[in-house]
Amino acid sequence: MVLKYTPACLPAYILFMCMRHTDHMNDDEKVRSLLTCAINSVKKVVKVSMCMFVSVLDNASVVYF
To answer: Cα–Cα distances in Å, from 59 out to 14, 46, 47, 50, 52?
Structure first.
């Protein structure tokens, strides 16, 4: 069944549950790897969204003047 409307916190909840499961297995290397990948992925998303925001802002200022 595909969810028609997903809550905004669903990705964070899934990541939290993965972290909890990995921590429960007591495998420090997997916990470290999962955290590193999650942090790097968030940084990429923020960087792309900031680039798009700056691009839109530049285009808006060019059109305005």
So the answer is: 37, 20, 18, 14, 10
- The tokens of 59 are what? 């285009």
How does pLDDT run along the chain (65 residues), one tens digit per residue?
A: 555 666 777 888 888 898 889 888 998 898 899 889 888 888 887 776 666 666 665 555 555 55
CA 57/CA 44 separation, integer angstroms: 20
The SS3 assignment for 27 reads coil
Q: How far apart are CA 30 and CA 15, in angstroms?
A: 13
Q: Helices in the chain by DSSP H: which ranges?
A: 10-24, 28-64
CA neighbor of 54 nearest in space, from 62, 40, 42: 62
